[in-house]
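Input structure tokens:
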């Protein structure tokens, strides 16, 4: 088997750990920390926002660093910092300690992010790049699917502190061996060619190496990707962070756990569908359709908060979660090429993540201001409609490389 597919498996596991303990775990930590210490939701939501700000700032050096030096150091650093942060949040007894834990969690998540995964895979695939990124991203859905029930069950049975300590140890046990034993920089280092080809294949975009951050940012195409997925990720992460707290007002703890798992299963199914057709579809049109489905899910959750409809709305939302995350690197990789993917998507994902960082705090502030999650959910529905329009308009016009 072409060694690039082993890199895909390693990236899938890295995404699983990073998302289980980072993106999806943050919502569980929010619920547990506020319940344990009696702190306001808005206060802890600010710490979650810090996680995303730190991660966003680091995405440019992570993308460029992996492109130049390979993923080994970054995956190892991600494992160590994520482990320490998760263990630390379980011991937090003062707000500053929670903020410190989420700060280091941001470092870990940047090193295990979609940017890290997609940049790691960029040199290994040309023909199957969409499929490779989509398959590796399945780890994020699997992480979300297992993290909520396991974390909630363990917290209930053995306590918050011991649970996070075990989770941190597991992160190191999985990620350090992957970084040292499996990860490699380029296929050429092993005497191979992209996609496992017998001979080097000429890339379709001969001038792809000419793209720089400045020239890429000057295009409507890249700015439309940043605006679209910045808005989409802001509202998505806002709900993911607050979903456990939102659902707990109408559902029992076992029902909350089951609904979070169903959301993650739906995300997995959505990603599987994308993995099957990623290299044949128009990615911008697909992104627009996914965002309209997400908008409908947000609207249903905000206006029809009965227990049964909360479950249905969460599943519909879940179908879009993974693809919103995965489509951005696929579009950038397809339109700007492999040679420039690291720096170009690094700056794009930095902008996307900075916008996303406001999601948890914005949801928390609006919830505390209006006394329910109805207003932030309806706001999210409207912003996803705007994002769906931007991604279509941004794809118009010539698609030529810079001179």
């Amino acid at each position: 088997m072409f060694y690039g597919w082993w890199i895909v498996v390693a990236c899938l596991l890295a995404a699983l750990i990073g998302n289980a303990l980072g993106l999806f775990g943050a919502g569980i930590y929010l619920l547990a920390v506020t319940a344990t210490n009696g702190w306001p939701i808005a206060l802890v939501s600010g710490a979650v926002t810090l996680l995303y700000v730190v991660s966003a700032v680091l995405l440019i050096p992570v993308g460029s660093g992996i492109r130049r030096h390979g993923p080994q150091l970054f995956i190892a650093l991600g494992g160590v910092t994520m482990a320490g942060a998760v263990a630390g949040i379980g011991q937090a007894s003062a707000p500053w300690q929670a903020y410190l834990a989420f700060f280091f969690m941001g470092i870990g998540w940047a090193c295990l992010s979609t940017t890290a995964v997609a940049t790691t895979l960029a040199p290994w695939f040309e023909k199957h790049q969409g499929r490779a990124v989509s398959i590796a991203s399945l780890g994020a859905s699997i992480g979300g699917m297992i993290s909520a029930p396991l974390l909630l069950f363990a917290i209930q049975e053995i306590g918050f502190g011991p649970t996070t300590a075990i989770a941190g140890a597991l992160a190191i046990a999985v990620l350090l061996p992957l970084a040292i034993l499996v990860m490699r920089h380029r296929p050429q280092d092993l005497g191979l060619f992209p996609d496992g080809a017998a001979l080097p294949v000429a890339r379709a975009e001969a001038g792809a190496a000419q793209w720089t951050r400045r020239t890429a940012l000057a295009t409507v195409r890249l700015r439309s990707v940043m605006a679209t997925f910045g808005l989409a990720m802001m509202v998505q992460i806002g709900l993911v962070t607050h979903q456990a707290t939102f659902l707990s007002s109408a559902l029992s703890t076992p029902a909350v756990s089951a609904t979070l798992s169903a959301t993650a299963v739906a995300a997995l199914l959505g990603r599987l569908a994308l993995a099957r057709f990623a290299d044949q579809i128009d990615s911008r049109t697909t992104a627009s359709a996914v965002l309209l489905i997400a908008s409908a899910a947000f609207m249903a959750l905000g206006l029809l908060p009965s227990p049964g409809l909360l479950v249905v709305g969460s599943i519909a939302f879940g179908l879009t979660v993974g693809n919103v995350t995965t489509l951005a690197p696929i579009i950038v990789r397809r339109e700007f090429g492999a040679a420039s993917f690291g720096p170009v998507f690094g700056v794009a994902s930095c902008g996307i993540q900075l916008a996303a960082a406001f999601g948890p705090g914005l949801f928390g502030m609006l919830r505390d201001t209006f006394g329910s999650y109805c207003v932030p959910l309806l706001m999210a529905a409207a912003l996803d409609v705007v994002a769906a329009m931007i991604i279509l308009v941004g794809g118009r016009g010539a698609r030529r490389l810079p001179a």
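Residues 204-209, 398-403 have pLDDT under 50 and may be disordered. The first helix runs from residue 3 to 37.
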